[in-house]
From TrEMBL:
The chain crosses the membrane at residues 818-835. It comes from the Bacteria. This is LPXTG-motif cell wall-anchored protein. InterPro entries: TED_2, TQ. Residues 1-35 form the signal peptide. The keyword Transit peptide does not apply.
Length: 854
């Protein structure tokens, strides 16, 4: 070869090596199939030349086929490099060493396999970039013609060989490639699969993020797809995490998974879109019209495509709650206006480092609806930042629970990230979320009547049956009760002490009953209604109360009766004497139970002896059964008896009220004026108006003064005494001039006992030898209430004497002429006294004369 030719060839090689350093992108687009054995291509080379193995020179060549650029390689390094321009290329046999080797060279599908081998055998500097291209050039030359593959260049001409070490590397690489499968039958098809099927599923991890199933790209190991990690996700492959926006190659046979903590991905499906494989159906071509140098390259057909989808399920953030009353520190609620409870929310699988809001609502376990107090739902919420994926946060609830007695409530909690609800715990059956608000109801009954009708007495017993619900089985409680006055709304006190009772029990079930007894003296409670107030304690905490002053079930009615006794005739408490006297006792009752049947039983009592009054050896009683139309009312009792002999006595009506055969109260006050009937008594002392004795004066204007003594009258009342003179002999009223001799006087009694005088003026001249007796009647309210009419009563009598006749000698025991003898005796005495005085006068005269003579 001449020097000129040598210089020309050296220049050509320099240009070829320069072109070899131009970066070339691997293309995965669609190409037309190449059916012809000869095709037209455009050949390009780098302006610079590159050295290898010490003295080897080469340019970087590429070919363009239908707009697609591929790597091209010189097969004869000992020849002058070809120029750029349009060239003809002929198909090579797929089974040739060149075709097989080129598949594993730089820029073609199997390059990673060869690059990996180089790196693992100490040649990592030749496993990428231009060094990999130059190595591929020498390797193809060696497979094409081993005798010319290792030539070196010097001064623009072939001179010697490249380094032994480079040759050894190429030979070893050739041996490795020859051991690989022939790519002529490789399938370019690709597909994705996951452990859950054609579409990958996800799980929500303990770290608080979605993790997809493992996804595998299936296809030839030399194939791959280019993939860009989507926004909000990351991809993990071979233990390495690729963040959102990262572009990477996914080789066939590789397994990867996606993960994200984007809550909005929940219940959505992600699609990768169409991804094209890098491995395409190919055909090896050789350019033979480029001068003395033959070139090799691959022309490729359309690549296969595939895609994958990931179905994101629901978020699996775990919430558990434990609700406790702040006072009992348990699920036993307290039913007061200032009740409080806390709900400790435990969360798991929550994405750390973010701010969340937990919101709670109190629900009615029975209805499944939100509890409302004063028209508002009972809610609470709190913001927090999760330091770890698992933790707790406590919400506090303040509420008026006085209206929640007997309700079972459940706390529902929801977890929000911003406005997005990401988790909830809303299980109506969850005991941990449940607060039991207890309720007690009481049924109080008198132990004797077994009803709400109390019995007044010293040994009264109220049995209060307390029904409870919504307690916690196995827990110990105490019921404490107190009796309240319904009218004053204050605790009843007996002997200065409240009436209380308490009982401690262990609840075997959530609902049940417990019995309380209140033992006390109820005599002072007549007419009062007591209400049993009960408080339920859990330990020292008062969890609920039943204190409804209007609750009939809690009430005991202590009846009261009062009586107003009156004589049927006088209409007041002054009785009338007679053989058929009737006392009407109006019994006023209060605090009875309307609709119930009662019996009033009465007895007349002798006020003086305090014993039952007996008439003809029998007590005087009455009774009446009635149904109370209202709690208060009256009932009349009639006592009919012979009252003769009761003059001057007072009787008191004692009444007892009975219910169901039980005496429930009584009115038995011996001093009660309202219960008392006074039977009056009168006595008279009649005397002549002149003699002042029972001997009358016979004259035209005779007067008898009758002093009427009365007793057992009711002071302040008005009375009238009416009298008549009776002829003792006939027993009939005395008549003078054809008219009865009468007198009367009306007076107001200042005291129960006293006197009043009546004067009878009449002509007694025809009454010589007769005796008149004064009969007196006492009237009240126009009714004769008693009389004094004993015809034989000396005190009521005045006797009128007969005239004393001459020769008549009064007989012993005859007092009719006694006054005549009295007058005669008086006259005789007067005469004697006169004679005595005269004699003394005469004696005195004589004595005086004697004194003078001396």
């Amino acid at each position: 070869m001449s020097i000129t030719k040598k210089k020309w060839f050296a220049a050509l090689m320099a240009v070829l090596i320069t072109v070899a350093y131009m970066p070339v992108a691997m293309l995965t687009g669609t190409e037309n199939a190449y059916a012809a054995d000869t095709i037209s291509v455009k050949l390009d080379k780098s302006s610079a030349s590159y050295t290898y193995g010490g003295s080897g020179l080469a340019h970087h060549y590429t070919v363009t086929v239908n707009g697609k650029t591929r790597q091209a390689y010189c097969l004869q390094p000992n020849e002058v490099p070809p120029d750029t321009g349009s060239r003809k290329a002929s198909a090579m046999s797929d089974s040739s060493k060149v075709a097989k080797t080129m598949y594993y060279c730089y820029g073609y599908p199997g390059q990673k396999k060869l690059a990996s081998w180089l790196s693992s055998h100490g040649h990592s500097s030749y496993a990428s970039g231009m060094n990999f291209y130059l190595l591929s050039h020498v390797l193809l030359s060696y497979q094409y013609d081993s005798s010319t593959a290792f030539v070196g260049w010097s001064g623009g001409v072939v001179s010697g060989q490249i380094s032994e070490s480079y040759q050894s590397m190429v030979k070893a690489a050739a041996a490795y490639v020859n051991s690989l499968d022939d790519p002529a039958g490789f399938d370019s098809a690709i597909s994705f699969s996951s452990t859950s099927g054609s579409s990958a599923s996800t799980t929500w991890t303990d770290d608080g993020e979605f993790k997809s199933d493992n996804i595998t790209l299936k296809g030839h190991e030399d194939n791959h797809v280019d993939y860009k990690v989507p926004s909000g996700m990351s991809l993990v492959m071979d233990g390495k995490t690729y963040s959102a926006g990262t572009s990477l190659e996914i080789d066939c046979g590789k397994t990867f998974y996606l993960k994200t903590s984007d809550f909005s991905r929940a219940n959505t499906t992600y699609s990768s879109g169409t991804l094209s494989g890098n491995l395409q159906d190919y055909a090896a071509y050789k350019i033979t019209d480029s001068g003395s140098q033959n070139m090799a390259f691959f022309a490729v057909d359309k690549a296969d495509t595939a895609s994958f989808t990931v179905k994101f399920g629901p978020l699996d953030i775990r919430l558990q709650t434990e609700a406790k009353d702040s006072h009992t520190d348990s699920s036993q609620g307290t039913t007061y206006a200032d009740s409080k409870f806390t709900d400790t929310v435990s969360y798991q699988k929550l994405t750390p480092g973010r701010e969340y809001t937990v919101k709670g609502t109190l629900m009615d376990k029975d209805t499944g609806k939100a509890i409302t107090v004063n028209g508002k739902a009972v809610t609470s919420e709190m913001k927090f930042t999760a330091e770890k994926s698992a933790g707790t946060v406590t919400l506090e609830y303040d509420l008026d629970a006085s209206t929640l007695k007997g309700k079972k409530t459940v706390v529902f909690e929801e977890l929000y990230y911003g406005d997005l609800k990401i988790a909830s715990h809303a299980d109506l059956t969850d005991e941990g979320q449940t607060i039991y608000y207890p309720e007690i109801k009481t049924t109080a009954k008198d132990i004797k009547t077994e009803d709400h009708q109390g019995v007044t007495g010293e040994d009264t017993v109220i049995v209060d049956t307390v029904s409870y619900s919504n307690l916690i089985a196995g827990k110990t409680y105490t019921v404490k009760g107190v009796l309240m006055d319904k009218d004053t709304r204050e605790a009843i006190k007996v002997d200065g002490k409240e009436v209380t009772s308490e009982k401690t029990f262990t609840a075997s079930e959530k609902s049940g009953t417990v019995t309380m007894k209140f033992i006390f003296d109820s005599k002072a409670l007549k007419g009062k209604t007591t209400v049993v107030f009960e408080d339920l304690y859990m330990g020292d905490v008062n969890v609920t109360t039943h204190s409804d002053i209007t609750d009939e079930g809690q009430s005991i009615h202590y009846p009261e009766i009062k009586t107003t006794a009156m004589d049927e005739k006088t209409k007041d408490n002054l009785g009338t004497i007679g053989n058929k006297t009737t006392i009407v006792d109006t019994v006023s009752y209060s605090n009875l139970i309307a609709g119930k049947t009662y019996t009033v039983k009465g007895v007349l009592m002798d006020k003086a002896t305090k014993e039952p009054l007996k008439v003809d050896g029998k007590t005087v009683t009455a009774e009446k059964t009635f149904t109370a139309e209202a709690e208060s009312g009256t009932v009349d009792m009639s006592f009919t008896f012979d009252s003769k002999g009761l003059e001057g006595k007072s009787v008191v009506v004692f009444e007892k009220l009975w219910y169901e055969g039980i005496r429930v109260t009584m009115h038995a006050d011996i001093t009660d004026e309202g219960q008392t009937i006074h039977y009056p008594q009168i006595r008279t002392t009649a005397k002549d108006g002149k003699t002042g004795t029972h001997r009358g004066t016979v004259e035209k204007t005779a007067v008898i003064v009758d002093t009427v003594s009365y007793s057992n009258l009711v002071p302040g009342k008005e009375y009238t005494v009416k009298g008549v003179l009776m002829n003792k002999e006939t027993g009939k009223p005395l008549k003078v001039d054809g008219k009865e001799v009468t007198a009367e006087k009306t007076f107001t009694a200042e005291k129960a006992n006293g006197t009043v005088e009546l004067r009878y003026a009449f002509d007694s001249r025809k009454l010589e030898g007769k005796t008149v007796v004064v009969f007196e009647d006492l009237y009240h309210q126009g009714i004769k209430v008693t009389t004094h009419s004993d015809i034989n009563d000396y005190g009521q009598s005045v006797k009128y004497p007969k005239p004393l006749l001459t020769g008549d000698t009064p007989q012993t025991g005859d007092h009719s002429n006694i006054w005549i003898f009295v007058i005669i005796m008086a006259a005789a005495c007067t005469a004697i006294m006169a004679l005595s005085k005269k004699k003394k006068a005469d004696d005195g005269t004589e004595t005086g004369d004697d004194n003078k003579e001396e």
